[in-house]
Design a protein that fits this description.
Blueprint: H1 9-12, H2 15-28, E1 37-41, H3 48-59, E2 62-65, H4 72-83, H5 91-104, E3 109-112, H6 115-119, H7 123-133, E4 137-141, H8 145-149, H9 153-156, E5 159-164, H10 170-180, H11 188-198, H12 202-219, H13 226-229
Parallel strand pairs: 1-4, 1-5, 2-3, 3-4
Helix pairs in contact: 2-3, 4-5, 5-7, 10-11, 10-12
Length: 248
Amino acid sequence: MTQAPRLSNSVAHLSNVTAFVGLVERVRNRAYGLPGLGVFYGFSGFGKSTAAAYSANHFRAYNVAVKSTWTGRKLCQAILTDLGIHPAKTVADMVDQVAEHLARNDRPLIIDEADHLVARRLIEVVRDIYESSGAAIILVGEERLPQNLQQWERVHGRVLDWVAAQPASPADVAKLVELHSPDVPFDTDFQAAILTACNGSTRRVCINLETMRMVALENGWDRLSLARWGKRAFFTGAAPAPRRVVNP
């Protein structure tokens, strides 16, 4: 498996990480005869890739993130590289290589950015791998991935479970404070204000925590609160307003 970044115990307790781990466990431990595909989907910024990376470490799973330019050949080559296998010459042979390896090893395959599989019409390659191996395969993608998969009934009908990534919770923010700002505590009401400003986006929460910690350190603050932050802006992800042209 490709070396993944080390992830802290704080990440392990995030709600979407817990949900992803539960999905992998259900698909891996399914009863005989049940389908073996799982789908984890949700809006950008909800921490899906972090949950996938943690689960890849936890289960020793193979983990590949699809790119928008990939072909079937490149998809198979990327998976085989993660499996540590030299790719064969043809796509058909590479599919067999992947399937044979997965069938012999009780390790899931996680495919992130799976929306590109549908857009590039590569999803049938994944179905071929699944049908030939019986392995647990988790597809990770954006909010409309379940609807987009409906046009591929032979794939859609082999999904055991659909799990929606949820917006960050107050408990998630508290864990992220431990991770990103262990030396500068954040008051609870300040954490709630950050969560509201970020509209549940875990990514934007993390951006705010890093920025705010640096401001605190620069000003010698030992704690962050709404009163201390004052009228400073939160990072919400909104695009800046157009600037006015200044006449020379």
